[in-house]
Amino acid sequence: MMAAAIANPSVSIQDLSLNFGVMSVLKTLNLDVAEGEFIVLLGPSGCGKSTLLNCIAGLLDISEGRIFIKGKNVTWEEPKDRGIGMVFQSYALYPQMTVEKNLSFGLRVAGVPKEEIAKRIARAAEILQIEPLLQRKPSALSGGQRQRVAIGRALVRDVDVFLFDEPLSNLDAKLRSELRVEIKLLHRRLQNTMIYVTHDQIEAMTLADRIAVMKGGVIQQLDAPQTIYNRPVNRFVAGFLGSPAMNFIKGQLEAGDAPVFKADGISVPLGRYAFDGDNGGAGKPCVFGIRPEHIALGDAAKAMPFTAESTVEIVDPMGSDTLVWTKLGGQILSFRVEADKTLRNGDAIRIGFDPARASLFDAETDSRL
């Protein structure tokens, strides 16, 4: 997918391809990152997101294309000359050194004056709230503290672009949540360009100005988080974002002035608002997608444009709410209800939704209709 051009981008990737022998890993990628933007590369394992980040960092040589950082062609520059700071999944701290020595190591090797090193360390320690840890060694730190130090090591380089390669994946859920907030605050304070790799959709949705969803070495969709969530360009994107994932019901689209989606025992009136352009998929097999949180129950369902009777199959208490599984059109469907709602397996229920909030995909191409 071609992204819209950005005037004077902080990072510009142009027609980038990477091959490992006969295997094509990244395929003619184009991506412009605006000055001060927070971009998240999101996708499953093996989609090429970390590989793309390593190409930007200069850790991998690309096969074709060009990479620009701050207007400078850095395609064949060494990593140290690209003006980037990188934070890896592993903390990669020197165990024999104190936090202060870990932070200053790269600067000392580069010959930065001692006064400047002390100034940068003090600034990074204050921003990351690690001043009390400077004389400790990594073995005396928690996982969250070690990751703060790893971020600080990139921060002291005083660069324009920060690259994060799944920095929170080794932490427990509570620490991930806390550090997500800290990284967001860090970006707000510094206003540096940040490119962040993750397979965690929550990280992507909460951190990103824009998300690039990747699959098979190709950017499937690049847009603001809510746009991707509400208007996914294809079935892969629709299914990857959302927990639980979007419900998919296979059926047939009937053409006409008032198009209707039909599956086993149901007819869902779509209206013209359901289509991107004309009814290009009319008369063809298609897939109807609706997110669990867009499905109403009981009295609320009766007020919806589409409503149907069903039976509870499974009830999954999730704490803050409850996930309920039922069937619609002969296929499994999940939806959310309040945690205090009492439902049991086998209960007869009425569900409903507004088709305007749904997505419709071509069954053959998986593209949005």
Automatic annotation (TrEMBL):
<protein>
    <submittedName>
        <fullName>Sn-glycerol-3-phosphate ABC transporter ATP-binding protein UgpC</fullName>
    </submittedName>
</protein>
<keyword id="KW-0813">Transport</keyword>
<keyword id="KW-0067">ATP-binding</keyword>
<keyword id="KW-0547">Nucleotide-binding</keyword>
<dbReference type="Pfam" id="PF17912">
    <property type="entry name" value="OB_MalK"/>
</dbReference>
<dbReference type="Pfam" id="PF00005">
    <property type="entry name" value="ABC_tran"/>
</dbReference>
<dbReference type="InterPro" id="IPR015855">
    <property type="entry name" value="ABC_transpr_MalK-like"/>
</dbReference>
<feature type="domain" description="ABC transporter">
    <location>
        <begin position="11"/>
        <end position="241"/>
    </location>
</feature>
<dbReference type="InterPro" id="IPR047641">
    <property type="entry name" value="ABC_transpr_MalK/UgpC-like"/>
</dbReference>
<dbReference type="InterPro" id="IPR003439">
    <property type="entry name" value="ABC_transporter-like_ATP-bd"/>
</dbReference>
<dbReference type="InterPro" id="IPR040582">
    <property type="entry name" value="OB_MalK-like"/>
</dbReference>
<comment type="similarity">
    <text>Belongs to the ABC transporter superfamily.</text>
</comment>
<dbReference type="InterPro" id="IPR003593">
    <property type="entry name" value="AAA+_ATPase"/>
</dbReference>
<dbReference type="GO" id="GO:0005524">
    <property type="term" value="F:ATP binding"/>
</dbReference>
<dbReference type="InterPro" id="IPR027417">
    <property type="entry name" value="P-loop_NTPase"/>
</dbReference>
<dbReference type="InterPro" id="IPR017871">
    <property type="entry name" value="ABC_transporter-like_CS"/>
</dbReference>
<dbReference type="InterPro" id="IPR012340">
    <property type="entry name" value="NA-bd_OB-fold"/>
</dbReference>
<dbReference type="InterPro" id="IPR008995">
    <property type="entry name" value="Mo/tungstate-bd_C_term_dom"/>
</dbReference>
